[in-house]
Amino acid sequence: MVYRDSQGRIRFKIVFWGPSLSGKTTMLKALYNRLRVKIKGRIKSIEDPSGRTLFFDYVPFGLRGNVVFDVYTVPGQRRHKRQRKIILQGADAIIFVVDSSPDALAENIYSFRELKEFLGQEFDEIPIVVALNKRDLDDALPERVLVKALRLDGPWPIHKTIATEGLGVKRVFQDAAQLSILYRAFPNEYERFRRSLALETREKFR
């Protein structure tokens, strides 16, 4: 939930969501290296020895003016369901990271259904930006197959990304940041804008 901190800065919360090894942390690190912002804190990560996120990654990005985006990733492994639910609380926008590997399709579906379960009624309202990641895989599932299988038929912008190369990552974050501000501060404009953005980005998947 958006709030004003002790220094008068307005803070928004954006959460990277998706199955284990879909590229959430890689995407956050790529974003960190590419964003030129007023405030950029250090990335804080809690990982296991293999590099998998145990609880969350976190970094604040401060843009022009006094707006700060607190960006989190969730651990994707199924056993960390409780942690994911805690981190999701108070989110102002969500970036859903889809793994394009055929082997990950079932986990993608599970992750998106879980997100819908946790959000409840807010699922139809909160900004969700979809990143079809790992598009460089030789056996990557076609975009249309992923969109249909996950039932990504809501008013959600969809982008192709290659997190390891930083491709598409900045645009995904920009959409989420802009939508989060409109969602909390300008609700009437938000609904119109997110639908037009969704239509614009979906044209290439028809």
Description of the molecule:
The protein has 206 residues and is an alpha/beta fold. It is built from 6 helices and 9 strands; from the N terminus they run ββαββββαβαβαβαα. Helix 5 packs antiparallel against helix 6. It is globular and about 50 Å long. The model has no long low-confidence stretch (mean pLDDT 91).
Topology:
Layout: E1 3-4, E2 10-17, H1 24-34, E3 39-40, E4 44-47, E5 53-62, E6 67-73, H2 81-88, E7 93-99, H3 105-119, E8 128-133, H4 143-149, E9 158-160, H5 169-185, H6 187-202
Parallel strand pairs: 2-6, 2-7, 7-8, 8-9
Antiparallel strand pairs: 1-2, 3-5, 4-5, 5-6
Structural class: alpha/beta
Supply Rg: 16 Å
What amount of the residues lies in strands?
15-25%
Poorly predicted runs are none
- The total beta strand count reads 9
Shape: globular
* Major pleated sheet: 9 strands, mixed
Figure out the total of helices: 6
Helix content percent band = 25-40%
Topology pattern, helix = H, strand = E:
EEHEEEEHEHEHEHH
Q: N-to-C terminal Cα separation, in Å? A: 34 Å
What does the average pLDDT come to? 91
Question: Gist?
Answer:
This protein is of the alpha/beta class and 206 residues long. The protein is built from six helices and nine strands, in the order E-E-H-E-E-E-E-H-E-H-E-H-E-H-H.
Task: Give a quick set of tags describing it.
alpha/beta; 9 strands; 206 residues
